[in-house]
Known about the structure:
The structure holds two protein chains of two kinds. By secondary structure, chain A is mainly beta. Chain A folds into two domains: 16-156, Rossmann fold (3-Layer(aba) Sandwich); 165-427, Neuraminidase (6 Propeller), CATH 2.120.10. Helices cover 8% and strands 46% of the residues of chain A. Chain A contains three helices and 32 strands. In chain A, strand 28 and strand 29 form a beta hairpin. The longest helix of chain A is centred in the middle third of the chain and has 17 residues, at 140-156. In chain A, 48% of the residues are buried. The model of chain A is unreliable at 1-21 (pLDDT under 50). In chain B, helix 4 (82-94) packs across helix 5 (112-132). Classes of the chains: A mainly beta, B alpha+beta. The A-B interface holds A 201, 203-204, 219, 222-224, 243-245, 247-248, 261, 263, 265-267, 269, 290, 292-293, 306, 308, 313, 334, 336-337, 350, 352, 357, 376-377, 379-380, 395, 398, 423-424 and B 101, 103, 108-114, 116-118, 120-121, 123-124, 127, 137, 141-146, 148-149, 153-155.
Amino acid sequence: MLRHTFKTLIIAILLVGTAQAELKIEITQGAGSRTPVAVVPFAWVGTSPGMPLDIAEVIGADLTRSGRFAPIPEGDMLQKPTAGADLDFDDWSILGVEAVVIGRVEQTGANAYTVQFQLFDVFRRRQLVGYRMPASRGTMRRVAHRTADMIYEKLTGIKGVFGTKVAYVTVEEQRDGKLYKLVVADQDGENEHTIMESADPIMSPAWSPDSRRLAYVSFEGSKSSVFVQTLRTGNRQRVSSKPGINGAPAFSPDGRKLVLTLGGIDGNLDIHILDISTKKTKRLTTHRAIDTEGSWSPDGRFIYFTSDRSGGPQIYRVAVDGGTPQRITFEGSYNARPRLSPDGTRLAMVHNDRGNFRIAIMNVERRDLLILSVGRQDESPSFAPNSDTLIYATRQGRNGVLESVSADGLIRQRLASGQVDVREPVWSPFPRF
Amino acid sequence: MPHYKLIVFILAAVLLVGCTGQTLPDPDAADTQYGGDGGASTDTYSDDAYGNGEPIADPYAGELSNIIYFDFDSWEVRAMDTDIVARHAAQMANNSRLEIRLEGHADERGSREYNIGLGERRSQAVRRLLLIQGAAAGQISTVSFGEERPQAFGSSESDYAQNRRVEIKYIN
């Protein structure tokens, strides 16, 4: 049903988001052929003149941003059905539309609603998925993203990530110095919340597997410490503040441990594992080279990390129980900051490509390297939980901006931020419903 | 053309400055007597006058630099900076109450946490030199900001060179 061509082209700029949102998303490169679909405005059954949120608009924007779909304009629609029985497939086939989404929002209480949607395959003339979900004004946007996720998965076979979040660090110039912020936003740039701010650098945010906590490095007091902060309460705990470097935290798949980098008084950076509740640390590497940027394999058995024990930085892995590290990357003089895809098949890294630092992914079995980004100073790759897309930081003039790219390199989006320097994006795991 | 004259004057001045320190030209190459009688005709360029010249005092001598810069991909203190480190070490050895924090920095290239490692290596190189020259371990702490606190914000080699540094901060 879906046509894919491997030709790429530049798609017109599309801006999504409210005036307050710092991140605006534009698709800079889309898949060669985008599937035409229709998202018919949802019916509204309630006491107020309009529904709390235009669900169809959110779904349409999600599908457009994926780079794989082209929702047709409302003005082109020959009919606007809101119930499955009213759908005339011929009207949609004439327009070349391959799939139609219809739905309704019904008010059931003061702040209680039911959202329902159905997705139809125009050619086969049947329903692909239909669902009815409770919502409140507060959860309406999440329900809309969840709807888009289900539609996307039905049409592509890939799990949607519209309901996920991204955390990142921003830096603003102020009269009396810089202001660093740790921000969490929906993956479309909406709903931004600053969860921590400081005049000293903030670095290396990392999500817990349940998306409820973030670990990060803060330099408050001119010394580095690793914190774990619970998003809902804002409570934070200083989990590592030893002499010298405390850096590069990443959660274990069970959420109980952190891999991190400790430098000690003599500044020999090594990989350690910290049990968050007991605060006990276990040293995993002992080399006098720089060992840092540890991250867990999804099965929890290995730590992948950067080490310059061979001269320049390369990626190694070591068993969580210890043992001799094994070198993983051999192509090029600089490979750093390894991140495994959640499905364990690909390894993302920062790779020096003839003087330019770019995001590359390596197929773990075949070991072949694919360079995904085109900047000069690209860094901090982070996989979406569906393993299909990555987000990373690049430069636009002096400022850092975020970009995402599909793992096949075909679809690229820029998340522009205006005047703010944005860096170190990390994609959240799937939300739990 | 006053501008033209000014330029000529500057050029002449530059040429004169350019001469100092170089082998003195024979003012009269044809004068075979020159070497023999130490010739009065060479007054302005006499060896005596040059030899008795006064060294110019370093106007910044009183200020001890607090920043050590490093070469690309290097964490070795350069020969020209070892004196700066030695003077800090002497100061600390003379006054055990002095405490410093060595803040290591890297240029922006490459990944952020690895750059934290490079900045720390530079701090440690300065720390080792200080310890060898009489500072006590308890007087020194280190921190690495990696590429997080650049001094120059551009992306040229000269910006990078200014950012590869260790700052010596007296905290007590």
